[in-house]
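Hey, I was hoping to borrow your eyes for a little while. A protein chain has come my way and I'm curious about its shape. Take your time with it, there's no hurry, and the full record follows here:
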Amino acid sequence: MQSAKDKKMIKTANTSILKADLKKIFGYDEFRGDQEKVIHNILAGKNTFVIMPTGAGKSLCYQLPAIISGGTTIVISPLIALMKNQVDQMVALGVNAKFLNSTLTKSEIKKVKQEVISGEVKLLYVAPESLIKQDNIDFLNEANIAFVAIDEVHCISEWGHDFRPEYRRIRTIVSQIGEMPIMALTATATPKVQLDVMKNLNMEGANLFKSSFNRPNLQYEVKPKQQAKKILIKFVKEQNGKSGIIYCLSRKKVQEIAELLKVNGVNAAPYHAGMESHQRIANQDGFLNEEIDVIVATIAFGMGIDKPDVRFVIHYDAPKSIEGYYQETGRAGRDGLEGICLMLYSYNDVLKLEKFNKDKPVTERENSKLLLEEIAYYAESSVCRRTQLLHYFGEEYDQDNCGMCDNCQRPKEQFEGAEYLKTIINAVLNTQERFEINHIVNFVLGKKNQHIKSYGHDQLPGFGTGAEEQDFFWKAVLRQALFNELLLKDIDTPGIFKVTLKGKEYLKKSYSIKLSRDHEYQTGGEEEEIEKSKPSLQSYDTTLFNLLKGLRKTVAKQKSLPPYVIFQEPALEEMATFYPSTMENLRMIIGVGESKARKFGKPFLDLINQYLSDNDIMTASDVLIKSSGAKSRNKISIINQIDKKYDLEDIASSLGITYESLITEIENICESGTRLNLNYYLDQLLDDERQDDIIDYFLVSESGELSEAIIDLEEEYSEDEVRLMRIKFMSEYAH
């Protein structure tokens, strides 16, 4: 066995070298979040614990140091599909990466081992089941191992949402290979899971890098599961062929929903463990290769899918925990573009999951019950969804309104709930605390069904006292009584409600409690509610973008790669914004870099140049693109959005800048020689006579200075009107 000193092949690198490698290999100008700190830490030979949400660039934290270090980096990953995807991406970047798992033949395994021992392989992806085999341990002892990266490390913890027993043996196996730094990575871990992982890996002294769990590009929404299939079909059809995942709890439901979508003209396919292996793999590959738009799946799907352009994730059934929900929704918008996360929620789903747990040990059952209560509270609360999610992971959200969830965009109606709560508590007491939600609600509504009559409950006090409301209203009241700890659920008999001591005291002396009324959604006809959403301000050339996307699919098919491995959607958007016409300009596009430009760039450049010629487009991209960074990108975006006649307030919002800053940018663009047509906006502010008045002023002005014009015209016109009219004057008379 080689000594730790011989095996340790990590090399340090300063920031400028790292950034040069980042640009050359991956095509990015800057690191995101804690990426650079993480990389410096592992290159210094220190144990590193990384908690970074999906889509934040977790993989790059071990890929870049592995590439620039001597020797081979072992990446322990739980899913074979994820290994193949990541190896494909690394190979596309010109990096020698391999995987070692049960899909390989004996001769293929032998070849991989030879390349690792000879030092040719930079990244070796290994499943934990393969790692624990003695022949693999022996082989790794012959190799120069730089460090070990353990992905999805929450699988180690019994308190995590995806516990895997084989993960508990990783520390022992790594110790047999030699002493080397460990990087542990996960996208989701509560403080309890963090401690359990660090203890098991014997890395309590590791440096922890915990990024914000906030995914600002994701929109969260919960809708009552009423007429769910109509809601689902309408939503998916509105997405118009975009990639999406729909999660269901059972295999039967997966098949049913996939068939429903197909019958309604949606390009959808099922995915679950009960399918024939070849069909399951074909459906997964079809989704990755953009031959299938929507996958309907059990929660097993997605963890091994590194597809960045998933635009929506739907939970048709309630998830089992907030951690699971966060990870599943995190599969949307990994490229940084908008993703929509929709949950269709019914409390019956929660009760169903509780019944599934009834045969588990008491401790496990209690833990599952608490996790499901968190889901119910999340779904039914009127609080900002983002605030709730971040709080669950121990992070505070300091904004009053995220603007990207249903509770912030359309606040639920609040009403005084004291009398309703007392009605529901009395109903539970009057029926001897022995019945589930439907029986209690039917009792309050006064429904004389066979079940009610067989117990004589139609003769009890309180029967029918809530007949003026509907069943879903009383179910919401009951669940909110649960959240306010006036009721509790019986741990031994899932679904049965008991009154707490606090609830009994509330009957004696009630106090004001505000309850939330569910949104009512219409699902058909002309009276259908049109929900307001943020304006979609696409500043890129959508025609060119769609052509580039089609070309990407063709190139991917030729090279037997998923399309996103060629170029991700943000890169295509930049191409459709800047119109790069040379290889040098193409390399400047964020997410391209030298290797991809060289490997895949030519057909894209040919298409762009042909498009420019066919449409007689004159572009300054070959000048502006060289001054890379947000400012030049903003200029192009502003010009394109003005061409499309977007309101200036909306343009400022889309760029994340103030209206004042936008006007300054527009003035700078105009001063630099670009003609802008703001007539569509100015016509809303000023009539023709007032516009002519300001134009006449500038025609006779000796200096044309803005500051002088503002002073001279201040009695008749606002500063804003003068600035905008000066831009119009310069565009019409100076360019």
